[in-house]
Write a structure and sequence with these properties.
11 helices, 34% helix, 5-stranded antiparallel beta sheet, binds flavin-adenine dinucleotide, alpha+beta, 273 residues
């Protein structure tokens, strides 16, 4: 930090249980994972939080494993570990594709999937994947563990059902049948925040999710229903444009985002034919 005598408090738990106890008894505390979002917030003065909980040493929250039909990814797993995982590449290639497009190698080495979810940016690149994959978010407090469907996790712009005394501990992903598809549209190939990002699955029923086109990641259910019922692509594109609510900001415009979302839908539908 820039100050010689830091006004920041850092708690160092020795175990997940220890961390959960600190959150309950000594909160509010802001969990720190890879800190790629937190340090930016602190440096720009955009983050008012002063009391932090370092998750860095909690190895129980790291790692990727297959448990029966479920792919389980610990919250502290980095983008790099996701990209390198044979299990992810085999079962959820769209997640590996999303992780490959996050920041650049330095950010991928530090940034975690739990941090991407908890940060809750509508432009978070793993979020459309988790939505289209029907992921579950595992939340733990000192007293309980609960699993929330990812599509119910966000309640508004950067707001979620996570309570202050809970940590995201893991993500669970059921097996997916069908072709997976991911595309991020940004200014450059690296270090670029999405203007529009889409993940989709073409299986028995299509599943389509988009980021950067609304206050939270959007699961395009009406578009999915239309395509499943045999609508033309043009009709589905029209419905998708109604389902999203993009804004003008420094990265893009409403008109551009609407147009790109429709084109991504067409590209997905053609590529997976
Ligand atoms: C240069 C740069 C480029 C970037 N490019 C991209 C990009 O292309 N795409 C993209 O999606 N993101 C991008 N990011 C954002 C960031 O790297 C990701 O959101 C990353 O996944 C955050 O993970 P982290 O572990 O660093 O989170 P942290 O910074 O440690 O935490 C982020 C938030 O999540 C909370 N948190 C972290 N872990 C947990 C947990 N287990 N339980 C509860 N709360 C938790 C923290 O309290 C904090 O509020 C970029 C950031 C930078 C600085």
């Amino acid at each position: 930090m820039r100050t010689a005598i830091s006004p920041l408090v850092l708690r160092q738990p020795r175990s997940v249980r220890d961390a959960l106890r600190m959150l309950r008894e000594d909160g509010p505390l802001t969990p720190m994972a890879g800190c790629t979002d937190i340090y930016v917030g602190l440096n720009f003065g955009a983050l008012a939080d002063r009391r932090f909980l370092n998750l860095g040493g909690l190895d129980a929250l790291r790692g990727i494993e297959v448990r029966g039909e479920v792919l389980r990814i610990g919250a502290l797993t980095t983008c790099r570990e996701i990209i390198r995982s044979a299990d992810v590449r085999r079962r959820l290639p769209m997640l590996a594709a999303a992780a490959r497009e996050i920041g650049a190698v330095q950010i991928q080495n530090r940034g975690t999937i739990g941090g991407n979810i908890a940060n809750g940016s509508p432009a978070g690149d793993t979020l459309p994947v988790l939505s289209a994959a029907d992921a579950l978010v595992e939340l733990r407090s000192i007293d309980w563990t609960r699993k929330v469907p990812f599509t119910d996790f966000y309640t508004g712009y950067r707001a979620s059902v996570r309570r202050p005394d809970e940590l995201i501990t893991a993500i669970e992903l059921p097996r997916i049948e069908g072709a997976q598809w991911f595309r991020k549209v940004g200014t450059r190939a690296a270090q670029s925040i999405s203007k529009v990002v889409m993940a989709a699955v073409r299986g028995e029923r299509p599943r389509i999710a988009l980021g950067s086109v609304a206050p939270t990641v959007v699961r395009a259910r009406r578009t999915e229903d239309a395509l499943a019922a045999g609508a033309t692509l043009a009709e589905a594109q029209r419905i998708l444009q109604e389902e999203i609510s993009p804004i003008d900001d420094i990265r893009s415009t409403v008109a551009y985002r609407r147009e790109v979302a429709a084109r991504l839908l067409a590209q997905f539908w053609t590529d997976t034919r």
